[in-house]
Structure formats: C-alpha cells, structure tokens
Protein: PORR domain-containing protein
Organism: Platanthera zijinensis
Amino acid sequence: MSSLSTWRARLSSSLASAASSSISGVRHKSQSTSIPKKLQRVRDHGFDDLMEVEKKVRRALKLQELILSHPGGGLPVSRLESLARRHLKFASQEAGSFLLRHPHVFHVFEHPVQRILWTRLTPRALQQLRIESDAISSSLPSAAVRLRRLLLLAAPSFRLRLEHIRLARTEFGLPEDFEQSIVLAHPSLFRLLSPSGPDAEPRLKFVEAVPNSDEPFPIAAVELAREREYRSRGSDAQDARFAFPIQFPPGFKIGKYYRVAVWKWQRLPYWSPYEDVSSYDLRTLEARRRMEKRAVATIHEFLSLTVERRTTLERIAHFRQAMGMPSKLKEFLLQHQGIFYISTRGNQGKLHTVFLREAYKKGQLLEENDVYLARKRLRELLLMSPQKVNFDRMLTSLGREGDGFHHSVPAMNTKEFFQDEDGSGSDSGVESQFID
C-alpha cells in the first residue's frame, strides 16, 4: 500500500507541474522553424560605400538642373547659392564648396565683364548628359517593354497612376516625355485613362496595359535565372524549382533553426507575380504563405525592371496597393536580407535604398546596360582627383562644346595641361590665357 500511495503522490506532483507549466506559457518543445517576422538589419559595406558616392551624385544632379535651367547654362555662384538654399535645402555656402570640390563637373571662373564668380558645367559633364540622353532615346523599345511588364504586375486592373510612374521614370530608364514617346506612341500596348477629362492633372491620370490574348504569359526574371540554373546543373537543380538566389550579408548569423526555416521557405510553391489571384481562396494558412512568397517575387521583379536593380523604399511604397505588397514594407524586406538589402546612407538616414543583392558583386552591377554606363560616367567624374583639372577647364574656357580646340590651341603634351611650371598643379595660367 505504501508503494501505491507513493506512486500516486508522484503522479499528482507531475500533473501539477505540467499544469503550472501550461498556465505560465512555457512549452517544452523545439524552437519554431519559420522565418522570424522581425530581424535586425546587418550592414553590407559594399552597398553602403556605393551609396556614399550616390550622395554626391544626387547633389550634383540637383545643381546641374539649376545651372542648366538658366539661359546660356551658366549663372553667378552667389545666385546658385541662393537657389540651392531655397529649393534644395542646402546649408549656407554648401553649394559653393561642392562646386570647388568637384571641378571636373562644375567649372568656377571669374566673369570677364562682371568680375564676379560664375559657374557652368564642364565639357565632360555636358558630354555625359548627352550620352545618357542618347542611351535613353536608343532604348525606347526596351523601355516600352519594361513599362508594360510594370503594368502587368498590377493585376487585376493592370493600371498605375501616371504620377507614380513619372516619379520613378529615372529608375526605369524612361524619357522625360514618356507619356508621348511611349504611352501615346504605342496604342496597342498602353491606354491613357483620365476620369476627369483629357486636361486633368497628372495625379488624376492612369496608364493601363491594353489586353492582348496573343501575348505570351510573362516570365519573371527569377524564373529565367532558375531555368539557367537547371540547364547548367541538370537534375541537381530540382530543389531550386521555387527557390530564390540568396546571398546573406557578411556577419549575418544563421542559426540551425533559421537555416531550416529558409530551407522550407525555398521549397514553398507560390503564384507568379504576373498571375491574377483575385479569384483565389486566400483564407487558408497555405494560401497566406504562398501570397507572402509571391510578394517577395513581386518586389524582386519590380527591382529587376529598374535600370540599376535598385530604387528607394518610398518609390516601392507608391506601387504597394496596386501590386498587393504588404503594408510594413521595411519589416518585410528585413525578413529576406539574403535577397534584398536596405541601405540607410543618404539624407541623414531618412532615405532607404533597396538593392537586389544577386544583381551586385562587391558594390558593382553585374549586368550593365547603356543607361547605367552613361550614369556611371558622372560618378567617375565626381571621384576624379581635382589635381588633374586643367584640361577640363581649358576646354570650358574655349566654349561649351570645345569645338575647334585642336585648331586654336598649340599642341601640348598631357603633362603641360595637368601641371604648371612650378609643379603646383594650379590652373591659373590656363584661366588667364584662355578666358576672354
């Protein structure tokens, strides 16, 4: 009897312990193998260093726009300082300091009549603008294809606000007059909708993709990458049927359970971002998981359509509702740091730039295009040493186009251009000789 009573006491004790554990919420089982909803951002210096250069590029583009908006493409430095403070929120003397730090893009000189400092763009900077304009003009057919695929992502309406497209036209390589040169020039592909009439404001207009039953179903960029992977690896790539290329940033800690969660997520089927899912039953847990992965595919395809495979988080947010993206975009992207990278460099951390990780290697775009190469020339000019500036300044002194340079200037070697007699590298002699 004593042994029976002892057994009963132990059983009641264990049951009480289990009950208290269930009440307190403690569960003795393995950790969840699902991707956490909130993850800390791990920095990738390759992308952040690229954004440090982009900070200079954005400032240079804004100042270029102010300079070119004036007759003759030049204006006094004091006037530029005033405009930059008023319209660009520059600090006092910030614009002038930026001009002097980048003499390969901006030429600062003393006006021969007014005897005050003026500025205008150097021939190399003007040439870069012409090359970029020519590259965009020559790529109009591919730009039309990108715009149509962008509209097809907005199922089931297949329409987007004209103003949102206009704000993102630089990222997608669209010309400034894309409404006329692309939308209205291709009535079989696009339709311009204006509920308030043809004279309505741009924010009230929509661009819609014209349905075409003969058009093949669009194939997303990640699906083409999987096809190439399957052809190269054969049967070994069977597990990559629904997988995304993943490259975690340096220092990203991958635990055992997180690795299992990613493995399961990579094999989860999902619907194509171009597929209309409005008629599907999305109430089940499996359907919600597929829709979450479909949102990843939508953002992946969105970035793949951009010229440089990156854009700002604010640009993506403009298309969020039309393309069925989640409301908390930043948290959603941080869940998938192996696919996307968010850089906060620029504008005191208020600007968030989203990169497609697989498209870059050590901060360099892998698949370059003509528009990207043209824009890359401006970055190279901003990074060039100010010591070798005489050649640009002399060409600017001879005229905006630099025409007749070889006829009006005696032949000199490169060393004479880039260094004066005392070896100081000053360009004062060039200015006094060639500015009329």
Summary: The chain is about 45% helix and 10% strand. The first strand starts at residue 74 and ends at 76. The mean pLDDT is 81.
